[in-house]
Amino acid sequence: MGELELTWVVALFGITIILLGVLGLVRPGNLIRLVLGAWQSRKGFYFSIGIRVVFGIVLLLAASQSRFPEVFRVLGIISLVAAMAAPFLGFHRLQRFVQKWSKRSLGRIRGWSVMVFALGVFLFYGSL
Known about the structure:
This protein is mainly alpha-helical. It is about 85% helix and about 0% strand.
């Protein structure tokens, strides 16, 4: 897969992130249930690590063809570091963090969702 095709993968990640942001803005309770459901098992934990690894690698490989190569590289490195840190933090500690996050006010969840939406838009725009 060439670098040009990888920018389309970043665009798809961007669209997915945009949709998660919209969900959090329009139906924050549904976003909370989605996140809590994903963190019910170790399978979800390892899946989230895998997504971070794929996302990080794709960002790094697509960076040179993006509108913002330095930012894409930094985001790719952050994603890979987060993936590597997760096993050291452990499933139960991160599960407690998600539980605590889920108890935030709906206004706060919407605030985070605005940032998620903006990240998705940035990735989509930057990858085309």
